[in-house]
Write a structure and sequence with these properties.
- The protein has about 120 residues and is of the alpha/beta class.
- It has one domain: 2,3-Dihydroxybiphenyl 1,2-Dioxygenase, domain 1 (Roll), CATH 3.10.180.10.
- The protein contains two helices and eight strands, in the order βαββββαβββ.
- A four-stranded mixed beta sheet has the order 1-4-3-2, with helices on one face.
- Strand 7 and strand 8 form a beta hairpin.
Length: about 120
């Protein structure tokens, strides 16, 4: 299974503010931090997220079709994560709502243009 996801950034301090806010809502903080890299998560916990300036020294770019999904505990948290993202320099890619089949999600991009969502899979009724 996935251990962690790493996204590129061209402005680590700006992006760190965005991810500090999102990950704080999810109950995790920074677990590793270097001059060009920060990771959020919990030792022994679920998959974490890392943010880095590209190793090759070139500009970070967005992967077309790439998205990171953040699992929320309920619809209210999906909304909070979406709102936090927009309040911290993120942009809207689809307001929270039912997407069908028990899938509830809100979509947004981080300040570097990386696409994320906050989602909840509801049990069938």
């Amino acid at each position: 299974m996935i251990g962690y996801v790493t996204l590129g950034t061209n402005d680590l301090p700006r992006a760190a503010k965005f991810y500090d806010a999102l990950c704080g809502e999810l109950g995790v903080g920074r677990m590793m931090e270097f001059e060009t890299f920060i990771a959020w998560g919990e030792h022994g916990g679920g998959a974490g997220i890392g943010l880095t300036k590209p190793f090759d020294g070139n500009s970070a770019t967005v992967g077309n079709g790439v998205m990171v999904a953040l699992e929320a505990k309920d619809e209210a948290q999906v909304q909070r994560l979406y709102d936090i993202a927009l309040a911290n320099g993120g942009t809207d890619e689809g307001a929270p709502g039912d997407r069908g089949g028990g899938f509830y999600a809100g979509y947004f991009r981080d300040p570097d243009g990386n696409k994320l969502n906050a989602f909840l899979m509801k049990a069938p009724e």
